[in-house]
Structure formats: C-alpha cells, structure tokens
Specification:
Largest sheet: 6 strands, mixed
Number of strands: 6
Strand content: under 5%
Strand order of the largest sheet: 1-3-2-4-6-5
Distance between the termini: 79 Å
Radius of gyration: 27 Å
Length: 620
Amino acid sequence: MTSTSDISRLNAIVSLRWLLGLLIFSLCMIQLCLTYRGLNNETAMDMAQVARQIARGEGFTTKCIRPIDVWDFSRKSKNGKAVDFNHFAEANHAPVYPYVLAGAIKLSGYDDFASKRMDPEKNNIYAGDRVISATSTVFFLLALILAYTLVTRLFDEIVALTTVAFMGLSELMLQYALSGLPQPFMLCLVLCALHCLVSAIREENEGKTTRVLMWLSACFIFMALLCLTCYMCIWCFVGLLVFCGFYFHPNGMHSAIGAGFLLMLVALPAALYLTPTGGLERKFIYGIFNGFGSDGAEALMRSATTTAISFNTSNFFLRLIGYTFAQFNNMYINMGAIFTVPFFLLALFNRFKSSIVQGIKWATLAMWLCACMGMALFGEAQTISESQLATLFTPTFAAFGVALVFTFLARLQLGENFNGIRVLTIICMLVVSSGLFLFQLPKQLYIGIWTSARGVPHFPPYYPAAMNGKLHDMSNEKDLIVTDQPWAVAWYADRKALWIPRSINDYTRNLEPIFQASQQEVQGFLITPTSHTMTGNGISGVIRSAGDFAPLALEGKLLLLTPKHNMAFAELFTTNANPKSTVRPLASLVSSQGVFRHRNFLLGAEMVYYTREDVSDKNN
C-alpha cells in the first residue's frame, strides 16, 4: 500500500517535471521567436542549401563550391577537365542530416525560393533560417526527453531532473539548439544508442546471449547513423567497440560484429560516395590538415591544387598527444560549462552498486577518450562546430557528476535535513552553471523586441536581405559568383558560389581552364565583411586571410574609412613585383580596365559586387 509521503513525493516530482519542461520550452521559444537573429554558422548555412537542393529533387548537390573540390572533380572527370557545375556533387558533409533538413524545408515550402523571398522593408531575418533552427530545436527537446529517461534508468528521477535542468538552462546547449548544426540530432542518436547499450548490459548480467546481440545490433545501427551524420563520430564508434570487446562475453566477438556494422553501413558507403573526389583516404588526409597543416583546413579548401600545401610532420606524435590533452582542458566549456561535468572524472574512482551504471560509465569513458584523440588529430578546437563531439557526452558526464554529489551528501548522514540541503545544493549548482545566462536574458529580450522591429541580423558579417534581394536580382542562375561567403550566397541568394582562392595564380592557371572546359562563366567577385572586418589582427589579418586578393578586400575598408573619396585600391596593382612573373596582376581581373570592372554596392562599401557588366539596373 502506497503511503501518504510517497504520494506527496510522486506529485512533487510530476509537478517539477512539468515546470521544468515548461521553463525549457519557453526559453527555446523565446530564442526562436523573440530574440532570434538568424543563422551565424557557415556549416549550418551550407547544410541548409544542400538540404534545399535535395528538397528540390536535385540530389545531394551543392551551390557552395570549394576550389579543391573543383580540382578533384576535374581530375576524376570522364570528360577531361569538364566539371558539371550545375549539378556539383556535395563531398564535404555526411549525408544524413541534410536529408533530415530537406524534409523540414519541403514541408515548410522553402524549396521554392521565389515564393519565399524576403521583404527588407519588413524583416532583416530570413524566415528560412527559422525553419533550420526550429528543426534543431525540436531535436534538442527530444534529446532532453531521451536524456531524462536514460538517467532515470541509471539512477533516479531526481538525478534525471537535475541533469535535464543543467542541460536545458545551459547557454551553450541552447546555442546549439538554435544553431542549425546537427549536434542536437546527433545527441538523440547517441542517447538512443546508450539506451540500447543499457538493455544489452542488463541482458548480459542475466545471461541472455541472444538478446544481448539483438540490443547491441540496435546500438550499432544508431552509431552507424551517427557516423553518417558526422564522420568524426567514427571515433566514438571505435571507443564503443573497445568497450564491447572487453565487457561482453566471449571477449572480442561483439566488437567484431560491431566492426562489421561500421564497415558495411559507414565505411563502404562513404568510400563509394567520396570516390569522385579522390576517395575516403583523400578526405582523411584533407581533414588532418586542419590540425597539422601549415595553414589549416581553410587554406586547403581554398586551393585549387595540393602541390603548394605543406604538412607539418615535425614532432607529430608529441603534438598529437598535446592536442589530445588540450581537449581535456576544454572539457568544461565544450560541455556547456555545467558545474557537475568535471566530477565525472572523480566518478571513475567511485564504484556504483549497479553493474549497469558501472558499464555505462566505462563505455562513456572509452567513447570520450577516442573522440578526444579524433578531435585532436583533426584539429577541432571550436566550442560551437559541426565536428565538436564533446557535447554528445554532456548528459552522461553531468548525470554521473550529479549522482556523485548526491552520494557525498548521503554519506554526511544529514538525516531529516538531507532533502533540504540537496535542494539547496541543486540551486547553487544551477546558479553557477546558468546564472549569468539567465541574468543577461532580459537584455537580449530588449534588443530583440524593442530595438529593431525588423530583427537584428548577425552583421557583420552576414546581412541576408542584401543577398536575398539585390545580389539575387543582379546575378543569374547559370553563372558563378566568386566570394568570401559562398555558403551565404548559396543559401540566401540561391546562386552558385565559389570560395575565393587566396592565390591569383590558383585562379588564373588552375581554375580558369576548368571553367573554360566546362563552359562555366564567372559573373563577378563579391567581397563582404568576412574579408575586411572579421579577420582580426588588422591589415595583417586581412592579408593573411585574403592572400593575393587582399587589395580587393581592403578596398571596401578604405571606402568605409574615407567615404568622400571613391577610391579603387585594386587599380594600383597593375604589374607584378617580379618582372619575369607570368601571373596576371590583380588589376587585370578587378579594376576599371579589368575583366570585372563594374562595382555594385549591396550594402554600401561593406558588401561590394564586382561584375563584368553594369547590373545595377537589374535591381530596379
């Protein structure tokens, strides 16, 4: 018979569950509807425009084109150097999440660009951005539900509610929910895999071999989907295989089965899919340039050949170990600055009574360590990134930390004061983890609602209205735009865009012959604040980022500093410093006497579009 105290406790938990759910849902809606500023992550925009291509029935193609991909496609092309720029295959993103976004875009009607154009007089935020952010927000809320049920299975509802509160009130986790990146979706897949792993461990303890294999197979399928959402997650899969090899009996058998799943469901499809651009091994080499290349992955992506890219092999393994331990140092920030996250490392030394909890603890550790090595190898250091895997371990790390804190409180023998002190501890931990974010929320509401009725975009560097309006009208569908924001041009203007190389020699000697063989015209060059405002380190930063095109990037900056003088900085670069050089000077491309001689101001001197012909009247 249930006692009155048990009923009261159950009612209190149910009330807390609903209050917490309402609070987190309200925060997500405030971010999505009131303080929303649009997408500000280049990968999210890139995936969004690929998803729109899929929704249109164009297949897994892209309008955001990287010079290195043009080079690879031309080498593999059956027609010599001819490349189909009208159906340019996407070779940089794993396929699952763009297909998920494609469903949302199709349902919302944003596959029809013409019918969903922006009205800059009414709004500065592209409504299609909200579709992308709403999709990731839905998966974030689903991930919280999955985290709640998983932690309840491992510990109890109080630990689960505390863990969900930490996640739902974490500024970083809410940023991911709004970012349009695949992390919330990936978190759902990881939690589903861990649910299956919990069931497999339970069946292992009961000696039910057949059911163990069944649940592990389901776990491996979820992990395969995770890897096809982000190739970096292969490292997490490897960590899971290591754990299975040691934990389940007979040792090694289930790990071998999991390796078969990895090979058949991930490696083989990825190898076939990447064959046109050099295969899986070539993408692997490209990836590690981000960590060990002389100038990082961006320099490689903007190069039309790999001959000029150097690989820093000095002290490779020492630096790899250093980068791996750097991931440990950033663990707290990358997991949402949640107070209990670091306590997971202390929980490794605590033996929990449940064998299931012990098993999940070591499985999480194995997966996380392998993920750290993978992120170190590929140079992943950004807190918010499509390849940041630390976020996937936030629920389990936070839950084990919360459980350890409650265990310490229980050992203090507080008697009747235990529940009161535990509530006070939870409140203090929430204040430390989320107090600053919640304190700044009213200011964000004021900026988002009362400062601008049309919305405040992420400018600089992004101003969607200029691309969705003027740029789209000034350009045409068949020609190519060379720009420093190809992902934004592809998403907001629905135009083919090539990431501007850093070398004029790359453009004229390596890319132009491919354009000619493919009958692909280049209409113009678009320079945005990405080149002249967002680089940092002043002029030296602009020169390092823009390379040979630095004078073009600085031209807009000079016009901003001296608005009364209509200077054309590129006019000065009519000859090369080396008289024997055969490289075309910058002025031969972009100047009053060059190929792209007309300047069109999309947003004053902040965004300048250089074209072959005067296209300013097309916007009238």
